[in-house]
């Protein structure tokens, strides 16, 4: 390989030309080295080191202090595109500001997450915006435009969308397969990605850990067939952490790592996030893949070019720094924006007149979330925080607000004595630790998964004579508990196995602050969840071991008793219930139920028994099924964890300073039985989300109440051109206060030939109206929105017929409606005779059916045990006399009113053979096909009668 000369330092070439020059002068080994997340510097070319990936989901994360906005699902609840644009702008400004002082802060930001929230049990529910593709795409487009910035040529940050594609489960997330039929793929999952990419504000995507239709997302053909066709810009595809190794280690999709990285590179992965900051393993695999002829220099160059293009857009190769200025960080404007976002994300679920609270109300603030301002895995470090208790005392006066957490106060005793928390010198106790210790981490990226617990504190010990420490015991549900020392620190286990009162809060990739209490004799064994070992008494303190000590729990005060006491003396009780974002539902862990944990149900029931003027404020990363609370309590609210200003925002809404106008971004179901299986991705077949759900939700998609009242009238529908439908109506605030309203536009296909959504969102806007004020609202809806994916023909189709346009305040609260007749594609049967049937394009399926990969690079097949239905198949006037099946594996294929075709073992799942059998059919009719055994069916073709198979 010829040595490449350095760029001339005074080159005035445009950025694109500089990319060409760099690519031409980098050696092969230098180019391969750039394919790892931590791309090294090339000093001879004045090329700096570069890192892909900076978390920025709702603020700059993992890099120390930053403005923390509400969780993404809370931002989705604002239904406010303009607000999300301003938040994206603030986050990108802070990223630039932080980078000026710490060059480890990256500008290629991995945000936002646009995975659709089809199942509320998904552990990462907090990271998505909504269950609806229109709302998700609109909010993501606004946020990425803010992240990109408004410079005509250069980008403030370069956002990457996560996680491509159809990723909604943490259970077996790197080995599970999402079976996504073509209609669901095109009408649902792809739409969330497409609009932000087409808007030109996205630098790339990150593939998900899971498989889609039997093929790992990191070798997905959709990267090439879909993503890269949506824009002329180069898009950077960054692997998820460790995913390239998963292709061999856990998924066993390839036999060698060289084959795996080669397949990923050819599929379109440009940057490999694997083995942390150590690039040697991935670089070695790529080099060997090249030496073995598995990838070409052109494959390498394509990926390197995409990386360099992103760096050019960020201004790295500009003659003068386009962003050489002082950037705002933790500004007054950013603080106000964080509060505005928190206020706008609050959803009033029910109100029978209890809210807003009068000025001099005596309030009891109770519950596990009443004095918490919690952060999640993708939060920055809080510079300031406001809990609900803080906000209420600030707004109503500390003398009018009483508090009870509702945690049991306990002491632990064993045969050797009482468990004690040692006193610690102030200078030791005040040392920053755990998730707060980010500034002490050296090296490249700050990854909270690498931050160890403290070992400088003395462990807990047992004393036969001293009084035991009073601990706060909190039951978070599913048997998971935390223990907190009198000084507020959680009992945690560090790498040395000792139990210390050392953690500011539960956290970490593996949470070290949770325990389960296992009954044993007259007491309990305390099993530490993080290690799976038991708390035991050793000579030098408490530590975890294979054999545990039996502890008796001495209850000093029940949490429910404390709640009842303060509730009885208040005018109004506010119960703050919900989740800790690091416990029972988070990345790595799906929930098992929609139900609020029983101990928290006990708290709101206790409060109501003591004082019927009780409201439930749910502070959580996801929906709960709380039908009893809805029936028995006069008021309920929900907010996601609202960031640094969460408490103040809640207090202002409760006081009526701000009228709530958040709207639910996903359906709240009444019971677990309303949900399909966690791994069921077919929203059409299993009737998921508001689009297809046929039951009665507890609270519908788009729901949210106000302190004001609004009327809708004067609906007018027109078609200004062949590509657009215009819908205009008037919204009037008939209440006595200024308030926001969120008018929503849905459409429904009337008498559709295929299952269509019961209604689907096609327009939304958040508006502010003064008392008595009106606003004329107009939505311009592209005609394409009326369409669906014609699976039989592999294209988007707008069918002729009638469509309802529905205007309202939620998906269930429709105020205005008009029917519009559209010209479009006439109904036509499947051309089964002339074109055959791709097996995965079925209309319905029953049983245990799964779409899988036909080959490792492209195509789909269907396998499992069950029945496939293909509607309206045209077998021609003369009919057909034979069927030809493309199959692999072993099993049987039964055609209704036709033969049973036995498929002998073909040699493997990718060893396809063609099997012919007699089959007679004439005209247009439905076709039912039953599968059994391990056969894979890729295609069904037919022979016209008289022509032979």
Record keyword descriptors for this entry.
21% helix, 949 residues, alpha+beta, 9-stranded antiparallel beta sheet, 20 helices, 8-stranded antiparallel beta sheet
Short description:
By secondary structure, the chain is an alpha+beta fold. Helices cover 21% and strands 28% of the residues.
Describe the structure.
With about 950 residues, the protein is α+β, with helices and mostly antiparallel strands. About 20% of the residues lie in helices and about 30% in strands. The chain is built from 20 helices and 48 strands. Strands 40, 41, 42, 43, 44, 45, 46, 47 and 48 form a 9-stranded antiparallel β-sheet that branches. β8 and β9 (about 215) form a beta hairpin. α9 (about 255-265) packs across α10 and α13 crosses α18. It is globular, with a radius of gyration of 30 Å. Residues about 1-15 and about 430-445 have low confidence and may be disordered.
Please specify the SSE layout and strand pairing:
Layout: H1 15-25, H2 28-33, E1 38-39, E2 50-51, E3 54-55, H3 72-78, H4 81-101, E4 109-113, H5 133-148, E5 160-164, E6 177-178, H6 182-198, E7 204-207, E8 211-212, E9 215-216, H7 222-225, E10 236-237, H8 243-249, H9 257-267, H10 280-291, H11 297-313, H12 332-344, E11 347-351, E12 363-366, H13 388-396, E13 401-404, E14 408-414, E15 417-420, H14 426-429, E16 461-463, E17 471-477, E18 480-484, E19 490-493, E20 499-503, E21 515-520, E22 523-528, E23 534-538, E24 541-545, E25 550-557, H15 559-568, E26 572-578, H16 598-610, E27 614-619, H17 627-632, E28 635-639, H18 646-655, H19 689-692, E29 710-721, E30 724-733, E31 739-741, E32 744-749, E33 760-764, E34 767-769, E35 774-782, E36 788-790, E37 795-797, E38 801-808, E39 814-822, H20 832-835, E40 837-838, E41 844-853, E42 860-874, E43 880-888, E44 891-895, E45 900-903, E46 913-921, E47 924-933, E48 936-944
Parallel strand pairs: 3-4, 4-5, 5-7, 6-8, 7-10, 12-13, 12-26, 26-27, 27-28
Antiparallel strand pairs: 1-2, 8-9, 11-28, 14-15, 14-17, 14-25, 15-16, 17-18, 19-20, 21-22, 22-25, 23-24, 29-30, 30-35, 31-34, 32-33, 32-38, 36-37, 38-39, 40-48, 41-42, 42-47, 42-48, 43-46, 43-48, 44-45, 44-47
Helix pairs in contact: 1-11, 4-5, 4-12, 5-6, 8-9, 9-10, 12-18, 13-18, 15-16
């Amino acid at each position: 390989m010829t040595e490449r000369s350095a760029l001339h330092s005074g080159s005035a070439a445009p950025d694109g030309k500089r990319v060409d020059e760099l690519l031409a002068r980098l050696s092969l080994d230098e180019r391969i080295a750039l394919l790892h997340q931590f791309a090294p510097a090339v000093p001879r070319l004045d090329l700096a080191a570069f890192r892909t990936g900076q978390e920025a989901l709702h603020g700059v994360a993992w890099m120390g202090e930053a403005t923390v906005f509400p969780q993404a699902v809370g931002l989705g609840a604002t239904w406010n595109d303009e607000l999300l644009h301003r938040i994206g702008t603030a986050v990108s400004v802070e990223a630039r500001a932080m980078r000026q002082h710490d060059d480890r802060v990256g500008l290629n930001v991995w945000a936002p997450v646009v995975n659709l929230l089809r199942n509320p049990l998904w552990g990462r529910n907090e990271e998505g915006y909504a269950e609806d593709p229109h709302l998700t795409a609109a909010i993501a487009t606004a946020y990425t435009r803010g992240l990109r910035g408004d410079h005509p040529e250069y980008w403030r940050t370069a956002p990457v969308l996560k996680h491509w594609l159809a990723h909604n489960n943490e259970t077996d997330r790197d080995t599970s397969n999402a079976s996504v039929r073509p209609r669901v793929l095109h009408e649902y999952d792809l739409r969330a990605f497409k609009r932000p990419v087409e808007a030109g504000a996205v630098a790339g995507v990150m593939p998900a850990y899971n498989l889609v239709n039997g093929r790992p997302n990191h070798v997905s053909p959709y990267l090439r067939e879909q993503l890269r066709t949506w824009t002329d810009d180069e898009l950077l595809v960054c692997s998820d952490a460790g995913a390239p190794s998963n292709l061999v280690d856990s998924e066993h999709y390839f036999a060698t790592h060289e084959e795996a990285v080669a397949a990923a590179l050819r599929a379109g992965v440009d940057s490999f996030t694997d083995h942390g900051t150590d690039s040697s393993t991935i670089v070695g695999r790529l080099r060997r893949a090249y030496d073995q002829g598995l990838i070409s220099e052109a494959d390498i160059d394509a990926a390197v070019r995409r990386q360099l293009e992103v760096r050019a857009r960020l201004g790295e190769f500009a003659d003068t720094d386009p962003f050489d200025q002082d950037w705002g960080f933790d500004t007054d404007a950013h603080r106000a924006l964080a509060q505005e976002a928190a206020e706008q994300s609050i959803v009033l679920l029910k109100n029978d007149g209890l809210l807003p609270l009068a000025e001099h109300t005596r309030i009891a603030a109770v519950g596990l979330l009443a004095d918490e301002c919690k952060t999640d895995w993708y939060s920055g470090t809080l510079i300031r925080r406001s809990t609900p208790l803080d906000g209420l005392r600030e707004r109503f006066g500390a003398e009018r607000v009483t508090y009870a957490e509702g945690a049991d106060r306990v002491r632990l005793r064993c045969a050797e004595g009482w468990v004690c928390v040692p006193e610690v010198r102030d200078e030791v106790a005040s040392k920053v630790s755990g998730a707060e210790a980010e500034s002490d981490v050296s090296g490249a990226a700050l990854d909270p998964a690498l931050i160890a617990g403290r070992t400088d504190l003395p462990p807990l010990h047992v004393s036969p004579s001293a009084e035991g420490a009073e601990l706060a015991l909190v039951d978070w549900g599913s048997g998971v508990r935390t223990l907190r020392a009198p000084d507020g620190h959680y009992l945690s286990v560090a790498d040395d196995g000792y139990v210390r009162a050392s953690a500011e809060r539960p956290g970490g990739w593996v949470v070290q602050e949770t325990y389960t209490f296992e009954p044993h004799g007259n007491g309990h064994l305390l099993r530490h969840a993080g290690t799976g070992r038991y708390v035991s008494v050793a000579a030098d303190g408490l530590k975890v071991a294979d054999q545990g000590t039996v502890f008796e729990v001495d209850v000093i005060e029940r949490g429910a008793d404390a709640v009842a006491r303060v509730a009885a003396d208040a005018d109004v009780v506010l119960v703050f219930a919900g989740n800790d974002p690091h416990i029972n539902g988070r990345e790595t862990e799906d929930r098992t139920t929609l139900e609020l944990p029983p101990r928290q149900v006990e708290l709101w029931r206790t409060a109501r028994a003591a004082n019927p003027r009780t409201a439930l404020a749910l502070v959580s990363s996801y929906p709960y099924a709380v039908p009893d609370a809805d029936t028995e309590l006069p008021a309920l609210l929900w907010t996601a964890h609202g960031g640094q200003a969460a408490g103040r925002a809640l207090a202002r809404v409760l006081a009526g300073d701000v009228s709530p106008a958040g709207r639910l971004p996903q359906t709240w179901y009444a019971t677990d039985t309303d949900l399909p299986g966690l791994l069921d991705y077919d929203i059409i077949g299993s009737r998921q989300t508001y689009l297809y759900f046929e039951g009665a939700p507890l609270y519908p998609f788009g729901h949210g109440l106000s302190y004001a009242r609004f009327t809708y009238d004067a609906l007018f529908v027109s078609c200004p051109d062949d590509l657009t439908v215009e819908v205009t109506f008037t919204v009037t605030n008939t209440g006595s206060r200024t308030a926001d309203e969120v008018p929503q536009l849905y459409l429904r296909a009337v008498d559709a030939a295929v299952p269509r959504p019961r209604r689907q969102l096609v327009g939304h806007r958040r508006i502010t109206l003064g008392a008595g004020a009106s606003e004329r609202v107009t939505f311009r809806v592209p005609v394409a929105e009326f369409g669906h994916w014609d699976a039989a023909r592999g294209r988007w189709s707008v069918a002729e017929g009638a469509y309802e346009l529905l205007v309202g305040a939620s998906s269930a609260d429709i105020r205005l409606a008009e029917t519009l007749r559209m010209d479009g594609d006439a109904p036509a049967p499947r051309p089964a005779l002339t074109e055959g049937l791709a097996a995965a394009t079925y209309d319905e399926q029953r049983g245990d059916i799964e779409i899988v990969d036909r080959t490792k690079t492209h195509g789909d097949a269907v396998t499992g045990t069950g029945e496939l239905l293909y509607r309206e198949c045209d077998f021609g006037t003369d009919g057909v006399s034979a069927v030809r099946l493309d199959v692999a594996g072993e099993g049987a294929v039964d055609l209704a009113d036709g033969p049973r075709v036995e498929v002998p073992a073909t040699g493997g799942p990718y060893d396809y053979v063609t099997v012919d059998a007699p089959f007679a059919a004439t005209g247009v009719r439905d076709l039912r096909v039953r599968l059994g055994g391990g056969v894979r069916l890729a295609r069904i073709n037919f022979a016209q009668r008289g022509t032979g198979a």
